[in-house]
């Protein structure tokens, strides 16, 4: 036969022995009391026949293959009961082998911990090497195997074991991290578990801080990661006043709290991982809320205790800096400070906070100045996890309900470096990311169900009590906790994939594309499961080494690690760069690093539009693709944008212009009134006016005779109809959420300056009228003498259909140029009035503003010199002049249309109208085989009245029509998903992150995690520290960042963040970076 050898499970090769097949089958038959004595020979003979066919050319068969054939033959021969017994026999022996392996592994586990040879010893940087650490390590190994063998399916377990992804905290049968409600603890006290000690709500500061310590210690035992409280200083400051404490007593209480919270009482000889958010100033939503002392609401409100908050924050910062008995800084709790627009940078009360930052870099800063976050929409949790409470609001309950009770179910990190090494092209790269994300999602959904069941059974008794309100609302304890997917080694992924690192333009561009794809996939998961998902920059101290070690074992020297040079030259252990961070030692300049990281760290919002659409900029109406391609040459350039906070349009600096491949996304085509026809990516945001109430009517009530539209769309816009006031508000909708009947917002504010202009209303009207009804030619006469005297002089010709208009022209040139003119009246019905003037001041005036001699060209446009003289007062006169010259007025509708064979001219009028807040629509057509373009003014009456400075007509019916035509919205007529040939779309980023004005035939407003900064030197002063933190907040979009001002060097542990005289890990004397 072809088979001579068998490969055992341990990889050992042995001789093939048919008797072992007979023996196993006979034992299975005896188990079911079968009377067939020949069953062993029969089955063995059939199995050998199969093996001869399968291995006719020789080879080594594996034990599992033989056993699978035995099962197959038993079933085929009709021995179903024996087959079942044989399967049970196999399972019994598998478990026996696992038991033997477990005892053998137990010895290895202890050895691996004691000699620190297992990477998992270092997975969590907060775990100390100790007896408790050993016990925790052994228990974690068993728990980890339970997850992989008993709970997760084979695909999840295999991908984790092979290093394609990493399931964090397998050693804990618990959630990742949790944010808790401090108000609930102060109101109810520390309690909730029968037979366990309980306390009444705290009445004193020391008691409150003591209960918080006990709460952290106890609840930390029911989770793998961080425990967090928000509004820490707001809720605790009133206790200082009610206890009548002086500052020294406050500081003593803080010393007790910080010392106790840093004692390593957590399982594994760890300090509980804790985080607190300090408000510094009482948030608006808590100012009027009654304070809680002893579980009771008092007559005073939190807004009355700012002085006590200042003392509380001062004491916290001072004690954190002073540290323990040896001056070692306290590691926990990690404080987070919110940097807002009204942050008091010069408040001396905050000096200890800046001193703490300058010395150790302890705090995290949440950037609410220049990022997409709102102080009420984010909860700080652990190293790099940022949770979005906007997602929680969608569940109901509001900010003051379930939102503090949030966190993360678990974290699964993807090995991006391996994906980069294996992918042949970008499409395969993304598909590999998607595949791993699908498995990560499956594992997290499994974990969520398991934890929910275990909570019901009482495995987490304190969590069960403090999550009681969430359970009541959703019938699930962990409904407000996110499923978190992380990534590791993006820099090495790019090096292996395209030989470019993440600091390169090409590398950063593709990294952003990958993160876009991941973000969209998470949104899809969220919609499918109704569970929350987020993307985390994983704090992967151990995972970075595990991934690199496994990849080196599998792919050898071909796969690139972060420290490749040291791996080759010194035999160092390989590792990958955390998440999407820059490679180590890339730059010593923090601002260079921030500029390279900025977009990656804040890449969670946005959208884009297809080419051909135009954006209104301070340099004119420009195609968006032209802005992107020529951005460096165009800088500085501003876009007209909408400030939703103050409901006004304003100019906003364009800070970036990008092209994006949207082939993975749905494209949405929006058709609306006024000729709007725009295709965007599905996530692209629009501002939409929504009626507050059921009736959807596009009307408003003017505040005065000359004011057609209210100033505050969000809260003040209303109409008088059917004895009801219809109010409107401005909301934001994605392109794929727009529906027929939605009103997309346009600009209604006149943004031209209210300043002096060289062109008053008369002069600018003359220039506007001259575009279509004027001509500069050489002087013509039948008299030889006159022709000789005026040779090479210009003649200005102006035409009009009616006498009233030509007389208006005469009046202007006589008043401003003291020019004599000649009027030629029409002789025939279709002829026009003609004014002739040879006044050189008049011709010079026209030349100065861009007009030339000769026939009009088909590409004429509004000259830049005229645009520069436009103001709030004269712009309407220019528009009126164009309509007077060649426009057609519909007196019944009150509208007008201006036509031109020059598209440039029409685009200029579109641009000017948009800046002036005048609603228009661009059209195109043909007349007598001649292509033309036009601008439709739906409300000509409005323009005419503003140009003439007349009061608007008061008659209600006419007023209503005017308002309806002038309303700054377009109504959506159709919204559909489409396929496009060119998937290269474009987008801009503005300094204030506002939606900018863009479109084609009409213009509408469309769109526009932690960064650790290491300085390498001690901050010289509090002033310089403040300046640096402020500069980062104001100039970068990073939502969350820390500052490490300097470091120290321990002879045993090496790098230590901050300035230390003794190593906080081993007490060895340390050197500062400067001394070293």
UniProtKB/TrEMBL annotation:
User: Residues in domain DOD-type homing endonuclease?
Assistant: 766-918
Pfam families under this entry? ATP-cone (PF03477), NRDD (PF13597)
Q: Which SUPFAM superfamilies has this protein been placed in? A: Hedgehog/intein (Hint) domain, PFL-like glycyl radical enzymes
MF-aspect GO terms? ATP binding; endonuclease activity; ribonucleoside-diphosphate reductase activity, thioredoxin disulfide as acceptor; ribonucleoside-triphosphate reductase (thioredoxin) activity
CDD domains to which the protein is assigned, alphabetical: RNR_III
Q: Which residues form a coiled coil?
A: 508-535
Can you supply a Gene Ontology BP term from the record? DNA replication
Highest taxon in the source lineage: Bacteria
Q: What InterPro entries does UniProt report for this protein, alphabetically?
A: ATP-cone_dom, Hint_dom_N, Hint_dom_sf, Homing_endonucl, Intein_C, Intein_endonuc_central, Intein_N, NrdD
Which top EC class is given? oxidoreductase
Q: Might you give the EC number(s) for this enzyme?
A: 1.17.4.2
Q: Which UniProt keywords apply?
A: ATP-binding, Autocatalytic cleavage, Coiled coil, Nucleotide-binding, Oxidoreductase, Protein splicing
| UniProt protein name | Ribonucleoside triphosphate reductase
Organism the protein comes from: Halanaerobium polyolivorans
